[in-house]
Amino acid sequence: GLLDNYVVGPKLHLHLLVAAFGAMSVILFSAIKAPVAQPFNTIGGNTLGGFVGVAVVSLLEAIGLEDCFWLSGALSVSLTIVAQELTNTVHPPGGATALIFSLLKSSHHEHLLFVFAPAFLGSVVMVATAVGMNNLAPARTYPQWWLPLKRALSPDSPTLDEDGLGSGMEVLLLCPTRLDAILS
After folding, report:
1. Where would I find the beta strands (DSSP E) of 128-175?
2. Long-range pairs for 137-145 at CB < 8 Å and ≥24 separation?
3. DSSP state letter for 139
4. What single-letter DSSP state applies at residue 38?
5. Lesser CB count within 10 Å: N end or C end of the chain?
6. What is the full DSSP assignment across 125-136?
7. Residues 19-46 pLDDT 10s
């Protein structure tokens, strides 16, 4: 908040904060072992959400549907979910970031700048803060991994869920024959 208020906002005319960062804070400081809390998911998923929100709004503006906020919001969130699943970057606040951009007409002029800040840069600051704060206590370790590939290839990492299907890139990397089951 201080960086946003005193450095990035006044000097660079960018923002680091969006409402989705409240949920991101809960995930990064309370659910540090969850896959959605890991840096790759946090930064990738939130940046992807910002990009999808901008892309949807730009497309709807190009075809004259810029005032269809219900459509913009629905498409932004649903396409963000699809993109996050396909890239193994699931991070729920990323869907909220896409929705926020879609619904806040005052941010539409920012276009791709919104993807850089707050979506990308804000999540980088949040992850850096989480790394510092979570590792102050000896019983806490954050992150659990930096990249999902490392997690997928570690011997103690489960590759299948309760249904036996699994999710994300780790299953595709380790069990490519399950692709048809995942997609159906």
Report:
1. none
2. 140/32, 141/32, 142/28, 142/32, 142/37, 143/32, 143/37, 143/38, 143/39, 144/32, 144/33, 144/38, 145/38, 145/40
3. T
4. S
5. C
6. HHHHHHHHHHTT
7. 898 999 999 999 999 999 999 999 999 9
